[in-house]
Write a structure and sequence with these properties.
elongated; 21 strands; Alpha-Beta Plaits; Helix Hairpins; alpha/beta; 44% helix; Rossmann fold; 6-stranded parallel β-sheet; 5 domains
């Protein structure tokens, strides 16, 4: 049913198409005229040969010959009749077998295909579109962002300049629109005045162009941009960007926070108001060998253990879970409760031997950010770097290939408490992770991943922790959309909060079954402006409460599908 309206809409869309319609009408008139003339001539030529046929038979013969079917049930016996038959046959070949298919494709099939393409990759959105996110580039970061927006049922659209690329993304179930990303009309057509956010993850130069273009017509529109170079931050801010993300800096800080080195106190990896998320290794403490119930961390310090990392695997613990020597506890509490924990257990921890440096593989933006963080924390480090032009005189550099054992020996690899692999190439990171793990089974290895699909491979190669550039960027953008600070949790561990779903209102935390059904842990409840950290299982959920939860990405998706409002 949609076929003919699509054709009509396309055919009447331009002056050129309208002129083509007149040619189509002329073609149809020529066909009708020839069929009529041939039918009349057939009748008279047959009469000359002494054959009598009806006018319907003349029409039938003309159609059979012109279409080259040639049944042969009615034939001429004279030469003039056969010449006439040849003329009818040749005209039929030209008009019906050559011109007709071309005309069908041009006036029917092509318009239908164009209409289908426009429906899959439109150039504008309905005027009632509101609170949507406009994305100007499809890359690993925005791909992860789209998954998160879809989980929370938020509308979005990706602007693509080439129709073929737009159709490819549409086939991947990505909502796309065709338009030039530096054209103000594109954003007007996409109802940018009603958008919740514009996300620009293109090059620094293009992001500046997009921001200036948008600020011409949309003064108060929230725009978040990424910056590859630190020198671009001020330029993008002056252009009108609401927030400039340096994802390399976020990634470097996150990797540094998860490194077991330095003073060995609990590393704070995220905050939300008064709630603090921290991780702490237990090696060398009396906690090793105890069950979670025996540790009494909740009773003594007011801490909730939301998970335990074991060699890259995030475990949802039970009271009977045994704390191993290699365990890294992830707990939630307040600054006071974490401070009390450190007063007791940081004395026991023997995470590093004094003076042994952490190895940073790669002296790029991420590696230098990690190094800066270590300098601030007074953590010794060495950077393994191939390129001598980066910083030849820096005493913190060891120049050479990290895959060369001699280079590793120069970096004190045999005593290093941890190694951070910061290359932007995932294949290199996987290779080096496997190599370093084969040399040192006891070393903590952290790696970055540019593509989410390589996270599990890095874990299999031996990485204890993997931080995804794509997921970290997506979380930062999503948190900006919701006016929150970025939570720098490890890859696969997510922090989120939302209004109490109707299905949980009136139930206690124990009755809700949140942890049992989804794997998430409710670490806080916000009630009438007051945040209750690590609430008791007997606390009842009110309709105006806000739940603050931690879990893996799968656990978050499970919560949203089990308890969606």
């Amino acid at each position: 049913m949609k076929f003919f309206p699509a054709i009509v809409s396309t055919l009447t869309s331009s002056k050129i198409t309208k002129s083509n319609i007149s040619l189509l009408i002329k073609y149809i008139l020529v066909i009708i005229t020839l069929i009529a003339v041939y039918s009349i001539l057939f009748h008279y030529l047959m009469a000359m040969e002494g054959q009598e046929h009806s006018w319907i038979t003349g029409l039938y013969w003309t159609m059979v010959v012109m279409s080259t079917l040639g049944f042969g049930d009615i034939t001429f016996t004279s030469d003039i009749g056969r010449v006439f038959s040849i003329i009818v046959l040749l005209s039929g070949v030209v008009l019906l077998l050559i011109l007709l298919p071309f005309i069908f494709i041009k006036f029917f099939f092509a318009p239908w295909m164009e209409a289908q393409s426009k429906s899959r990759a439109p150039r504008e959105l309905p005027s009632d579109t509101h609170n949507h996110v406009i994305i100007t580039n499809y890359d690993p970061v925005t791909s992860s962002l789209i998954e998160k927006l879809a989980s929370y049922k938020m509308d979005y659209v990706v602007v693509v300049e080439e129709l073929q690329r737009a159709l490819e993304l549409y086939d991947k179930d990505i909502k796309v629109a065709v338009g030039n990303i530096d054209d103000p009309k594109t954003y007007s057509n996409l109802q940018a005045q009603n958008a919740a956010l514009i996300v620009a993850t293109n090059s620094d130069q293009m992001n500046t162009n997009i921001t200036l273009t948008l600020r011409e017509d949309f003064e108060h529109l929230p725009i978040i941009t990424t910056a590859e170079s630190p020198h671009s931050v001020n330029i993008l801010q002056m252009a009108g960007s609401s927030r400039v993300l340096q994802l390399y800096e976020l990634l470097g800080n996150s990797l540094a926070a998860w490194t077991i080195a330095g003073d060995c106190k609990s590393n704070i990896i995220g905050r939300y108001e008064q709630l603090v998320i921290a991780q702490a290794p237990v090696i060398g403490t009396p906690l090793v060998g105890q069950t979670l119930a025996q540790s009494k961390l909740r009773e003594r310090f007011g801490l909730t253990v939301v998970g335990i990392w074991e060699r890259g695997n995030f475990i949802i613990p039970t009271p009977d879970t045994v704390i191993e020597r290699t365990s890294v506890l992830v707990f939630a509490g307040s600054d006071i409760s974490i401070g009390k924990y450190d007063e007791v257990y940081s004395f026991y921890q023997i995470c590093k031997v004094a003076g042994d440096p952490v190895i940073i593989v790669g002296g790029g933006r991420v590696g230098n950010t990690v190094a800066s963080r270590f300098r601030e924390a007074d953590v010794p480090y060495l950077i393994i770097e191939k390129n001598r032009k980066r910083s030849e005189d820096d005493s913190h550099f060891v120049f050479g290939d990290a895959a060369d054992i001699h280079t590793l020996e120069k970096a004190w690899f045999e005593k290093a408490p941890a190694a951070l692999i910061t290359s932007h190439d995932d294949a290199t990171n996987i290779y080096l992770t496997k190599y370093l793990r084969s040399l040192r089974a006891d070393m903590q290895i952290l790696s970055r991943a540019s593509e989410d699909r390589n996270i599990s491979t890095l874990h299999r190669a031996g990485a204890d922790f993997v931080m995804s550039y794509a997921s970290l960027g997506a979380n930062a953008i999503f948190n900006f959309l919701r006016n929150e600070e970025t939570m720098l949790l490890a890859e696969g561990l997510n922090f989120f909060h939302l209004q109490a779903p109707r299905s949980l209102v009136g139930k206690t935390l124990a009755e809700s079954g949140i942890r049992e059904k989804t794997g998430c842990t409710a670490v806080a409840i916000k009630h009438q402006g007051n945040t209750s950290i690590n609430p008791e299982p007997s606390i009842r959920i009110d309709k105006d409460d806000e739940l603050i939860l931690i879990g893996t990405y799968d656990a978050e998706s499970s919560f949203l599908s089990n308890f969606s409002s």
